[in-house]
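new request in #modeling-help
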Amino acid sequence: MVGRLSVICGPMFAGKSTELLRRVRATEDRGGAAVVIKPSWDKRYESTAPEVVTHDGARRAALAATDAEEVRRVVASAAQEALIAIDEAHFFGAALVPVVLPLLEARRQLIVCGVELDHRGEPFEPFPTLLAKADEVIKLASRCARCGGPARHSQRMNESGDRIVVGGADLYEARCRDCFVPGS
Ligand SMILES: [Zn+2]
């Protein structure tokens, strides 16, 4: 099997994790193995153990990684043929690129999922490189919280200048290009 990279991206509330879990389950239903990895410090919707939780309430156990290097170690301990699904990849930043690209060369099957535009509306690492290298890109839209149109942006509702702020519906809205106000 040759290496394959699928990227699932889009704003908050676009159903990215739902699509990720759908693909993981399809692999497992065919008898294949899958490993789901998520950032350890994103605990928004977890109960006790690490898991990916979608906005519509689906759950699946995940392995938590503190940074891109730990993603590398987790993948190294997984079976060669296992599907590797990385959720909330923007939290790992540019450091995920030199982890993912060698895995692709090593014939691993990868799905990388996350937000590709930051709160300023700028490309969000690691997605610029991973989108360019991907075999398949699934760009999902959400519904604009203001006008109901197709939303590509994640509007942050507070003043923080930090690029990464963990939050859900308390902190973010999906917005279309017209209704989006770039953060500072
Ligand atoms: Zn709008």
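bot summary: The radius of gyration is 16 Å.
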